[in-house]
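ok trying this again, last paste got cut off
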Amino acid sequence: MTNAKMTEQVKNGHGFIAALDQSGGSTPKALKLYGVSETEYSGEEAMFDMIHAMRARIIKSPAFTGDKVVGAILFEQTMDRTIDGIPTATYLWDKRGVVPFLKIDKGLEAEADGVQLMKAMPDLEALLARAVKAGIYGTKERSVVNAANRKGIAAIVAQQFAVGAQVASHGLMPILEPEVTISISDKAEAEAMLQEEILKALDGLQGQVMLKLSLPTVPDFYLPLVKHPKVLKVVALSGGHSRKKANEILAQNHGIIASFSRALSEGLSAQQTDAEFDAVLKGAIETIHAASIT
């Protein structure tokens, strides 16, 4: 079992987690930023072929190794596909030294009590069993906080920890992601409520979880979570910030590493030669890595 090695890398590896998990709704947008317009593919299958080609290009790039990228979050379809004939998760760990995670949520419910809970996941048990078979180390599920509403935030945390327990029962490491929208006026209050609810939930937890959180309003605000024995690692999402801005804020938050998606692929283009592509990606990885190891 490589799990102990993977845990060691996530806990103590000097790097960040690449979020390569844009799914259905966000794929056309991700492809457009990559320079592939919607006129260049027809139908969902072709679209997913295109995004897989982009992800494979990132993963195979010389800069994309476990030295600076400790893990990568995959979309279900990416897990089911191959790179050079090797299943993606296996390729990541065996060829790149990068720990594979899987995005498991099926999107968000409509807003209630200032939050968006995750939609029901009736096929989760089957998906988790497949993930274990595929060599996935952990999972990630996202819900969203849009207001400092105690009732809503308590509901989000309860749901995240319930799904996390289901994930852990398969021997997988859950990344709980209750994202706080960065543009809300009561963000700092929402973060305070969120941290209180998470700390309460951690008290009753068997085992460990990871947390993926929006970069806080107050630097080092989440240190109690970073230092908590039941938290393997706290990772941060860019939440719509540019890479430069996200890196600046991240560097002020000690012990938290990046788990950027759009901020990682910013500046990459299908039209670039491999040398150009690799140079841009290398620059991105180096700056995100530097901000992550503070």
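PB: full thing came through this time. The longest helix spans residues 150-168.
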